[in-house]
Structure formats: C-alpha cells, structure tokens
Design brief:
227 residues; alpha/beta; 5-stranded parallel beta sheet; two-stranded antiparallel ribbon; elongated; binds S-adenosyl-L-homocysteine
C-alpha cells in the first residue's frame, strides 16, 4: 500500500511513522508513506496557502490552487483507489472502513487546517471524507496519522501473529476480552485460573464470554450493528 499525505505541516508526521509496528512495515516495504508539502505547490510569491473566507467571519480557508496542482500531479503518476479528506463532517472511521481500505494499493489523504479547505477541492477531487470522531482538531495531520495507522496494521504480514488483528476490538462487532501477562500474582491480584488451564477450547469460550459481557456493558450499540 502506498499512502500519499498532503499537508502544510509534513514535520508533524516525523513521530507517528518512525516507531514500532508502522516503522517495521515501512522498513519491510509492506507500506510506503510519501509526505507532500502543499506549500511547495503554491504559485504565490510568498508561498501562501490560505486566504480569507468569502462572506466574512473568523478563520482562514486553504486555497484551491496549490492543492489542485499537487493532486493533479499525483493523479498523473498513478491511479488512486481513494482520495480522502480528513474532516469532522465526514463518515466516522470504523474498523469496517479500515478493513476494506487496507487492501487498497494507492490512497491519498488530504489534511485540512484553519477553517478547512475551499469546498471546490472537496467537490472536484475528494472521493471519501473521513472523520476520526465527533470533536474538532486543529488540523488533519493527527487524523491522517490515525487513519494510516489503522489501515497499515491490517496489511497482511504487518503484525507478527496474523491472528492478532482478528481478535482485536470491533472485529466481529465485539470488544476485546481482558488480557493478562506474568506475574500470576500481582500484589494479591491473580490471573483468572482458566487462562492457566491449558484447555484451548475452554479459554476461547471464556474469552468470548468476557468479550460479549464487556460489549454489552460498554458498547451495546455494536451488538446490533451489521458487519
Ligand atoms: N471548520 C471545520 C473544522 C476545521 S478544523 C468544521 O467545523 O468542520 C481544521 C482541519 O482539521 C479540518 O479541515 C480537518 O482536516 C481536520 N480535522 C478536525 N477535526 C477532525 C476530525 N474529527 N476528524 C478528521 N479531521 C479533522
């Protein structure tokens, strides 16, 4: 999978993709992330990328010209499965979307800033608008990092144990059961004995029951959702 991220703050991505599982996926060429600085595509002599909003009101709006030029350039180089805009008014990201998109070959993610981007960019180029939740961030960079992370970890071969993604929360519309590691006894609190029984079938049943109970308590809405 190749992900092109379009941003006015490429430095913001130095952290999220340079550690742990995502870094390993990139090092092993299972995923490629290309950062593009929108500012470099501005034809304005001061490399301006924003302007006042028509109709007045507080907040700047990201202009069409540099974004359109960058998107056109990338589109002339390869075919994109999806051109995503990060936006609080988009469809809220969930595991189903991540599962589907993790099989895509090329995606673009456009990060907004200030009041957002000129609507015409959204109308002309964007094929999918994604929100990471019902709250407002200062920019789309953190959202793009979240989106990319959730896609990349699902690419086959990225996680060491292939089955570990399948038992994560939201797969099968269930939250994850509790997990324990050594020591058996932590300050008087013991690990449930069933997990030490060596009986795989019983352990699976216990985990399923725990997952179901946790989902009923915390997210009953998931149980009625179509997968
Ligand atoms: N005026 C806009 C918010 C602008 S926030 C509104 O009220 O809808 C600036 C940028 O941050 C947005 O363009 C978007 O790219 C990003 N952003 C903010 N909140 C987000 C969220 N919940 N999910 C995804 N992107 C978000």
């Amino acid at each position: 999978m190749r992900i092109d991220i379009l941003t006015i703050f490429p430095e913001m991505f130095e952290g999220p993709f340079n550690h742990s599982i995502i870094k390993r996926a990139i090092d092993r060429s299972l995923a490629e992330i290309h950062l593009h600085d929108i500012r470099e595509y501005s034809t304005n002599k001061h490399k301006k990328v924003d302007d006042y909003a028509y109709g007045g009101g507080a907040g700047m709006v990201m202009t069409c010209q540099p974004i359109a030029r960058l998107i056109e350039k990338l589109k002339s180089e390869r075919t994109y499965d999806e051109i995503i805009f990060t936006s609080p008014d988009g469809e809220v990201l969930n595991q189903g979307i991540s599962n589907k998109m993790s099989s895509y070959e090329n995606i673009m993610i456009l990060c907004g800033h200030y009041k957002g981007v000129d609507q015409r960019i959204r109308d002309l180029y964007i094929t999918k608008e994604l929100s990471i939740g019902d709250y407002v961030l200062t920019g789309g960079e953190l959202a793009a990092a979240v989106i990319a992370d959730s896609f990349i970890r699902l690419i086959p071969g990225v996680l060491n144990d292939e089955t570990s993604a399948l038992s994560d929360s939201f797969q099968d519309n269930l939250l994850s059961p509790p997990v324990y590691t050594r020591p058996y006894n932590f300050e008087g609190h013991q690990v449930p004995d069933i997990l030490l029984s060596g009986n795989d079938k019983k352990i699976d049943e216990w985990r399923y029951e725990q997952a179901l109970q946790r989902t009923k308590e915390r997210r009953p809405d998931l149980l009625n959702k179509e997968i």
